[in-house]
Specification:
This is Taurine catabolism dioxygenase TauD/TfdA. With about 290 residues, this protein is α+β, with helices and mostly antiparallel strands. It has 5 helices and 19 strands.
């Protein structure tokens, strides 16, 4: 018979993340998972310190939070050799080729796969090997971003939709399966339209939804100049917040975030050191 452990969430001063204490990855039950899910929904980002779990344990744990989503990079350089559910994020090389995705460069603020019709609900990222410094991950709350907007700006964006092109990624590379468009106007390219302010499907709270870049994004119904100016203002407000949690990784740490109400970014790090992270991703709903 499993011994019930009392879980505890200790909120960080940033108001963005909470540390989970008392969860045993080797022995948990449905009540523990339900309590964890409630903490995840409450805080948006939760952290487990130095877990020491295996890939198989990560996959089994992740399965409790929804169906798996295959990240685009898993179909390219980020595939795992034995666990297809896992995206390998690494700058290590094998036989002269990358053994994982994303290398060692900076990753700017974004919500995961914002250009999907149904972006993922959550992500679970575990540190397998970390450099002595660098590669820190930053998180912010898009609930807070929306809630702290001036009232006039809230009124301006209320009911607005945002278009994201899905042909090129942030580095300018064609996405998998896409062809170079003939038009110079990205608004005529393949893309997806989402609400600029989305309502979380489980909590009912409103969150600002900016995706991952101003380039290739357009607020539907506005001129390009109007849209660019408003998006620049919203991005500055969102990323200029003091409410940012910084994760400085130790091996075995796990960060679990709600992709529907957070954004994150990563620092670059010295390519002389290897950083390996294993990530699982769970399915979400179309933003409304």
């Amino acid at each position: 018979m499993l011994t019930k452990q009392r879980l505890k969430a200790v909120q960080h001063a940033s108001n963005v993340c909470a540390d989970i204490e008392g969860f045993d990855f080797n022995s948990y039950d449905g009540r523990d998972i339900e309590e964890l899910r409630n903490y995840w929904l409450q805080y948006g980002v939760i952290r487990f310190r130095q877990t020491g779990i295996t890939d198989q344990q990560q996959v089994e744990f992740s399965r409790h939070f929804g169906e798996f989503v295959i990240h685009p990079k898993q179909l390219q350089e980020g595939g795992h050799p034995t666990h297809p559910e896992i995206l390998v994020i690494s700058n290590a090389m094998k036989d002269g080729k990358p053994s994982g995705a994303m290398g060692n460069s900076e990753a700017t603020w974004h919500t995961d796969t914002w250009f999907y019709e149904k972006p993922p609900a959550g992500a679970i990222l575990r540190a397998v090997q970390v450099p002595p410094s660098g590669g820190d991950t930053y998180f912010l709350s898009t609930y807070i971003a929306y809630e702290t907007l001036p009232q006039a700006l809230k009124a301006t964006i209320d009911g607005r939709q945002i278009f994201f092109q899905n042909v090129y990624d942030k580095t300018g590379k064609l996405r998998l399966g896409k062809s170079a468009p003939k038009s110079q106007d990205f608004r005529e390219w393949s893309g997806i339209v989402h609400p600029l302010v989305r309502t979380h499907g489980e909590t009912g709270r409103k969150a600002l939804y900016l995706g991952g870049t101003i380039d290739g994004a357009w607020i539907v119904g506005m001129t390009r100049d109007e849209s660019d100016a408003l998006l620049a203002e919203l991005w500055e407000h969102t990323t200029g917040t003091k409410h940012v949690f910084v994760q400085q990784w130790d091996e075995g740490d796990i960060m679990m975030w709600d992709n529907r109400c957070t954004m994150h970014r990563r620092d670059s790090f010295d390519p002389a050191f290897v950083r390996i992270m294993h990530r699982t991703t769970t399915s979400g709903e179309r933003p409304v």
